[in-house]
Write a structure and sequence with these properties.
The protein is of the alpha+beta class. The protein has 7 helices and 7 strands; from the N terminus they run H-E-H-H-H-H-E-E-E-E-H-E-E-H.
């Protein structure tokens, strides 16, 4: 029922997700490093100052008869800034990597109405590489986690994850426990 799904939004925790199998435990729920989201939002904050500088510099011309036009154009500009900011924050929130005791699932929101979900079973994972490139990622401790699987499947690249070495360790622990037939302990 639709009402049950709406209520479930408020009652489900970060330990559950839509396609979760029965008995499957969430080990990690990951998003990109917050810096990756805050950088474009901060730049948009600077762009939001443009109409203020324009009115300060050209006040005498604008007040002479173009004030209503300027206010209209500034309003349209701020709506565009708000929509772009909302887009970046939505992409940050909806792009997730979920590590469970059975699978690694990547949810990639490609646009407002486009999503891609990829998953791989932990028993297929053969190699995990961490890649941190640049001074800012090194200082803020974020980078890419590259997971190589068995067979002809491509590599899975999870970009800009915080503390990628810890993520690698957690995934390797899940893989080794799955190969040994032991269920990993979940931090609650």
């Amino acid at each position: 029922m639709i009402i049950d799904k709406i209520i479930a939004i408020f009652s489900e925790s970060s330990r559950t997700f839509e396609e979760q199998e029965k008995g499957e435990e969430v080990v990690l729920l990951l998003r990109r490093h917050p810096f990756v989201a805050l950088l474009p939002v901060g730049m948009l904050g600077l762009f939001a100052l443009v109409p203020i500088f324009i009115i300060l510099i050209f006040y005498s011309y604008i007040a002479a008869g173009y004030l209503n036009l300027f206010l209209f154009l500034a309003s349209v500009y701020y709506i565009a800034i708000w929509l772009i900011t909302f887009y970046y924050l939505m992409m940050y929130t909806l792009n997730t990597v979920i590590v469970t005791d059975r699978r690694v699932i990547e949810r990639n929101q490609l646009g407002f109405f486009s999503r891609e979900v990829s998953e791989l079973h932990v028993y297929r994972i053969q190699d995990i590489t961490v890649s941190t490139k640049g001074i800012i990622p090194t200082m803020l401790h974020y980078g890419d986690v590259i997971v190589q699987t068995a067979g002809t499947e491509q590599r899975f690249i999870f970009q800009d994850l915080p503390k990628p070495e810890n993520v690698k360790g957690a995934i390797m622990k899940v893989v080794s426990m799955a190969n040994a037939g032991v269920k990993p302990a979940v931090d609650k």
